[in-house]
Amino acid sequence: MSLQKSVKSSGDRSEQADTTSICSSVTTQPDRHGFFGGAQYSPEPKRTVSPSTILKREQKWLRMLDNWEAFMSKNYKKVRERCRKGIPASVRPKAWLYLCGGQLLLEKHPNEYEELLQAPGDPKCMEDIRKDLHRQFPYHEMFIREEGLGQQELFSVLKAYSVLNPKVGYFQAQAPVAAFLLMHMPAVQAFWCLVSISDKYLSGYYNPGLEVLQRDGDILHALLRRTAPAVHRHLVKHKVEPVLYATEWFLCALTRTLPWDSLLRVWDCFLCEGVKVLFKAALVVLAGALGPAKVRKRACGLCETLEVLRHPPENILGEEYLVYHMQRLSLTEEDFEFEHQRQTARRRAMANRRSIETSL
Amino acid sequence: MTSGPYNYSYIFKYIIIGDMGVGKSCLLHQFTDKKFMADCPHTIGVEFGTRIIEVAGQKIKLQIWDTAGQERFRAVTRSYYRGAAGALMVYDITRRSTYNHLSSWLTDTRNLTNPSTVIFLIGNKSDLDAQRDVTYEEAKQFADENGLMFVEASAKTGQNVEEAFLETAKKIYQSIQDGRLDLNAAESGVQHKPASPGRPLAAPPSSRDNCAC
Fold it and tell me: Where is the signal peptide (chain B) (predicted)?
């Protein structure tokens, strides 16, 4: 369920005469993230951190990136703390590449990306990728031109991945992730980051069957029961299953979900701490949107509840609110581990039961 | 969304299915917002839309589930077939492969819905007649052989989009009138809301009945 999309459709409603909703507002000047319009467009300037603080942070990050191995092995907590504060925009691309291990993969396989591109690729995969090229952030300066450089690079990155990992091939949820990475770094780096995210961070999410996604939906649901029992009860009562609202959140790692500034901050944490960051963000959005009893009372049905989750109040999606509350969730590493084990065992038992039933 | 409680008497659940890129989300958007969304992002998982229509003087709320087309999503979208009163099965008239896959979509639909589910076949992108890859006649024949309703439509121009959604509703409504569709069946895909505004219920309404869902 996309929160970005909803912003746009509400804008569309205001232009009555137009029957083709190309975009609610297209400007000639992109915003600071490169968007000319669309749901992600945010023209207002951002001033949450003072320039002198940014400068200090940049210097710290540059020092850290120069001594990366040492920091990661001996002072991980410091890295994590700095990621949680937000990585300065100027060093973010390099920081992401280092954080997710893309840099290591790139050093280990220096020519592999180009070699993968030489392969013909599975025809069905190539066809599917082509169908999706024009549908990724079409108002971003990189992707606005049909068959422009951005779309060509997107094709290359997705193709190379499908050749490298034929078991996954191409899955539609990878396209926004790859496009998002390409906005920040050259194609070869974006490729290795995508490899790392697909195979390590979101391991199993893109496999046929989507078992891991469904299990993680169950884990999210179980964690919600601890962090926001009233919201959990509401979702159970109206049969709002995680797969209905969280599929896009997880599969696209929130790239199609959050406002842009918040997305960047959440990704700073995600690439440092892993997939549990996505869970935390999801829990904060759920609790923020459905927390007030008044809202739950009004949203007394499946569709009404989904509608609320599609349009949560703007303030809870703001970067400061989101990142602050993600860290305040009273969930330990053990809680995640416990639920992970429990839901994995539960699904295994269910599968066993099913196979026994069918063999009878 | 709805403006208040009880302003419709039925809820019909629909699903929209078909290969990726055939225009499922665009059809839904054209029907609910009367607009062509040129930049429609591909659906990840399941999306939904609603609209209230009128059939034979009865207000009916359509609750439409729009599914992702890529094969891999079927693992999660299959569960939404259950309890659908209407299924809109979409192919792209300019891409034969999307037409060739219809039998697989149909098998899924037949297996996972109930016999009274109305299946409507839509050949989308009728505005692109010059690039046509599937003739009207052969699709019509396929529809007849399988007992499906059929139109060619265009989510871009809006041609026949209303018709497809409304004809499906009429057929469902007819099934209710004929008694072929059992409203009490758990997965009929239809809910009846007998009360109307201002008319008191026999029993005091619970909070559940008070809402517009």
Answer: none
Q: Are B40 and B66 within 8 A, CB to CB?
A: no
Where exactly are the structural domains of chain A?
A: 91-202, 211-358
In order, the DSSP letters of A164-226 are H-TTT---TTHHHHHHHHHTTS-HHHHHHHHHHIIIIITTTTTSTT-HHHHHHHHHHHHHHHH
pLDDT single digits (tens) A250-290: 999 999 999 999 999 999 999 999 999 999 999 999 999 99
Alpha-carbon distance of A14 to A24, in angstroms, equals: 9
Chain B CB contacts of A166 under 8 Å are none
Is the separation of the CB atoms in A343 and A218 below 8 Å? yes
Complex ipTM? 0.86
Interchain pair A12, B35: CB under 8 A: yes
Taking one residue from A and the other from B, the number of pairs with CB-CB distance under 8 angstroms is: 106
Could you tell me which residues come within 8 angstroms of residue A304 by beta carbon, excluding any fewer than 6 positions away?
Answer: A298, B1, B211, B212, B213
As to burial, measured by CB atoms within 10 angstroms (0-12 exposed, 13-18 middle, 19+ buried), residue A52 is exposed
Record the pTM. Answer: 0.90
Coil, helix or strand at residue A258: coil
Q: Does A1 touch chain B (CB under 8 A)?
A: yes
Q: What residues of chain B, 102 to 161, have a C-beta less than 8 Å from chain A?
A: 156, 158
Residues whose CB is less than 8 angstroms from the CB of residue A94 and which lie 6 or more positions away in sequence, other chains included: A65
| Closest residue on chain A to B49 (Cα) | A303
Chain B contact for A20, CB < 8 A? yes
Establish how many alpha carbons lie within 13 A of residue B137's alpha carbon, considering only the half-sphere containing its beta carbon: 0
Mean pLDDT of A119-126: 96
What is the set of domains in chain B, with CATH numbers?
Answer: 10-192 (3.40.50.300)
Q: Which one-letter DSSP state was computed for residue B10?
A: E
- Contact between residue A100 and residue A199 where contact means Cβ atoms under 8 Å apart: no
The CATH architecture of the domain made up of A91-202 is Orthogonal Bundle (1.10)
DSSP calls for B12-51: EEEEEEESTTS-HHHHHHHHHHSSB-TTPPPP-SEEEEEE
The pLDDT value given to residue A258: 94
User: Residue A35 pairs with which residues in a beta bridge?
Assistant: A140
Single-letter code of the amino acid located at A238: H
Q: Does B68 touch chain A (CB under 8 A)?
A: yes
B 23-42: CB under 8 A from A? 33-42
CB contacts under 8 A, A 269-298 vs B, are 297-298
| A279 CB-near residues (< 8 Å, 6+ apart) | A216, A219, A220, A223, A336
Site of tokens 């499908």: A162
Say which CATH topology domain A211-358 has. Answer: Cyclin A; domain 1 (1.10.472)
